[in-house]
Amino acid sequence: MVYQGEVAECGLACASMMLNTLGQNVTLSELRDKWGGGYGSSLNLLVSLLKSYGHEALPVKFDIASIQYLPTPCILHYGGNHYVYVYSQHGDFFQVLNPASGRLMISAEELAQSATGYALILDESLYKEKKKLWEGQKRQRLVG
Questions:
Q1: Where does the Peptidase C39 domain lie (predicted)?
Q2: pLDDT digits (tens, 9 = 90+) for 97-118
Q3: Please, are residues 70 and 89 in contact by the beta-carbon 8 Å criterion?
Q4: What strands, in cross-sheet order, belong to the sheet with 57-62?
Q5: Which residues contact 122 (CB under 8 A, 6 or more apart)?
Q6: How many structural domains compose the chain?
Q7: Residue 1, in any domain of the structure
Q8: Which domain holds residue 45?
Q9: Helix (H, G, I), strand (E, B) or coil at 128
């Protein structure tokens, strides 16, 4: 679990957690030094950040009603001005790592209530099966 040090560091904290999940021990401090953090992070900045560590990520807009098909792990735009790291799914529940408040397990319905419909998903063969389900749902790739 990586907690944000400042209000606008949620995106960097989520990127750090994703990189750690992918086997790269990258601290929030390292990301802050390299990518800044005081002004918040766009999905495009997070795509560039992950790419610099060798991971292809796709910013997507998705139908919130299809949130149960969200590939995990992913970074989810949440509550209008925040990012959370969706680590895993267990049935109808998601394990969410919120860099502002900690780890929680919430239902897909609860997650959908705060989701904005934007996410950053990995484009890697490791997540191929779940992506097949996801790609059958209505979504569109954001161009950036």
A1: 4-122
A2: 999 999 999 999 999 999 999 9
A3: yes
A4: 102-107, 93-98, 82-90, 74-78, 115-122, 57-62, 139-141
A5: 18, 55, 56, 57, 58, 71, 73, 74
A6: 1
A7: no
A8: 7-141
A9: helix
For residue 94, tell me if it sits in a domain.
yes
Strand partners for 121:
58, 74
User: Largest Cα–Cα distance of the chain, in whole Å?
Assistant: 39
Q: Which residue has the tokens 């957690």?
A: 17
Tell me: the pLDDT tens digits for 2-58?
A: 999 999 999 999 999 999 999 999 999 999 999 986 678 999 999 999 999 999 999
30, part of any domain:
yes
Q: Does residue 71 have a cis peptide bond before it, meaning omega lies within 30 degrees of 0?
A: no
**Contact indicator for 57, 48 with CB cutoff of 8 Å:** no
